[in-house]
C-alpha cells in the first residue's frame, strides 16, 4: 500500500488512467470498505497512530496528524487550509493548520467515565510521547530557528515529492510595537547593517566629478536626509513594507556615464556644480516618468509582463556593471582591500553562527565592523609612515608633478591614507541640506532619456523586492494597485533627490532583503524611528566629514562585497521558477551574457578616452563616441549611453524573451499578486497595506 495515500493497492492500480469522476466513485467505494474506528476504554495513543497510518493519515513528530497532499485517484484536496498558521502549544512555535486532523476520541466522550482511556490520562501520554520525540529532533529545530526559519514536519519530504515551505520566524511583524527603547535599537540596527549602501555612493561619484572633500561631506549629509525622509514616506504612503528607501546602485552607473562624457571632461572651474546640476535635471525628468507610471495605473498593466525570469538577471546586472571598477579601484591599496574583503567573508560566512551577548553581531554588523577594523588598521599604517615618500606631496595636483614615480606615490597616498581628506577641517558643525543647494538644474533631452530608461529598471528592481519582502515577513502578497502606489512614491522620492541634489535617484534598496532576513525585524515603526535619527544625524556636518575621510580603496573594497551580494540577491529570484527548465536557464544566460557583451561593444568606440580617463572609468565613457550615429547629437548620446548600460540591455532582452517564448505559469514562476477584492474582505491585509485612516478618509472625501 502506498504510504500516506489511504488507498487500496488494487483500487489504485485500476484507477490510474481514470478521470476525476471515476476516481471519486472508486475512492468512495473504497471508503465504504474501511473498517470504522471504534473507541476503546483502554485506548492507547499508539494504536490510534497505527490506525491513522492505515487509513491514509500521516503523523508527524509534534503529535499532530495530516493527510497526504493530493489523492492519487483524482484532484481531491485532502488538506485545505494547509498554509494557515496556528501556534503549536508543545513546541512553542507556529505550525501549519490542517483542517483534516484526527482528534483522540476516548470513552469519556461517549459517557464511559474515567478510566485507563480517560481524556486526562491520554493527554499525559500524548504529552510525554510528543516531548520525547521533540527532544530527538530538538537540535535540528533549534538550528532551523537560529537560521530564521523552520520546516513543518521536521523537513521531511511529502509523499508527492514536494517539500514543505519554510516559515520565516520574525522577532517583530509589520505592525508590532515592542516598546520605545527596542524600537530605537532595532531601527538603528537596520540602518547600521546598510551603512555601506547608504554612505559609499558619494565616495564614488564626488571624486569622479572633481569635487572637494567638503563637497563629499555635503553630499553624504544630503543622502542621509533623503534616506530618512523617503523611508518614512514609504512606510506610511507607499507599500508600507519594512523597506529602506535610499540612493540606489541602479542610478550609479548612468551617473558615471554622464560624469565621464566629453562635455564635462575638460571643465576646470565649477566642474562639480555643473555636473551635479546636469544630474539633477535628468533625475527630475526620470522621476516624473516614474510617478506617471505609478499613479496612472500603467504599472499595474506592466506587472503582467514582469516575472522572476525578468527580475533576476536585471538585478544581477546592476551589480555586475561595476566589475571593472570594483577591484581595480580597491587594488590601489592591496594591504587594505584584501584584508577587508577577507574579513567581510569570514564575518558573513564563517562566523555567522557565532553569538555574542545573545546577538549575531558578525552576521548583522559585518560591513560596519569590518570597515571599522580595517579603517583603524589603515590609520596605524598612515601614522607609521607607510605612505610617506620623500619629495612627494599629495597636495600638489598630479598634472604639475614631473617625476613619474612621484605621480604614482601621490595617487597611492590619496587612495590609502586616512588623513588625505581635509573634510574635517573645512566642514561646519551644523549644516542643513536645502533644495537646489548646487544651483538650478539643467535639463537636456539626452540625459533625460537615459534616466527614463533607468527609472524603468529601478521600478522592475523594486517589484522583485516587494514580492520577496512580503514573503519574508509572512504577509500576503500586495495587490497590483499597492505595487503601483509604491512605484509612484519612489518616483516622488527620486524627485526630492533631484531637487536636493544627491547625485542619484531614490529607490528601494535590494540589500534590504538580506538585512531583514538576518535581523528578523519587520516592524515599520522601528524603521520610521531609525529614519528620524538619520534625519537628525544629517544635520551634523562633522559626521559627514568623518564619513568623507574614509579612504577610497577601503570604500571600493566594501562595495565589491555589496555588489556581489546584489548579484546573488538578484539571482535568488529564480527560486520562484523551475530552475531546471531549459527555457528559463537559456533566457537568463543569454540575457546576462549579451547584457555584458553588447555594452562592451559600445564601450570600445572611444579611442581618445583611454588617454584621458582612468581604466576603471572607461566602461562609462562610451556615450560621446559610440557606434550609434544618426546625425542627431542628442539622440546619439542618449542611445550610446543606454546601450552601454548592462542593466538596461539585460532587462530589455529578458523582458522580450520571457514574454515571447512559450512557457507555463508554473515554469515561469509568474508573480501572483492579491486581488483587490480579496483585500477588501481581509481586515488583516488592510491593516498591513492600507493607507493610514486619516489619509484614506481624506482621499475618500476628495473623491466624493
UniProtKB/TrEMBL annotation:
It comes from the Eukaryota. Its main location: membrane. Residues 72-85, 97-106 have a biased composition (Basic and acidic residues). This is Nucleobase-ascorbate transporter 11. It is found in: Membrane. InterPro entries: NCS2. Coiled coil: none annotated. It is a multi-pass membrane protein. One of its GO terms (cellular component) is membrane. Residues 1-27, 54-140 are annotated as: Disordered. Pfam families: Xan_ur_permease. Residues 62-71 have a biased composition (Polar residues). It comes from Cardamine amara subsp. amara. Keywords: Membrane, Transmembrane, Transmembrane helix.
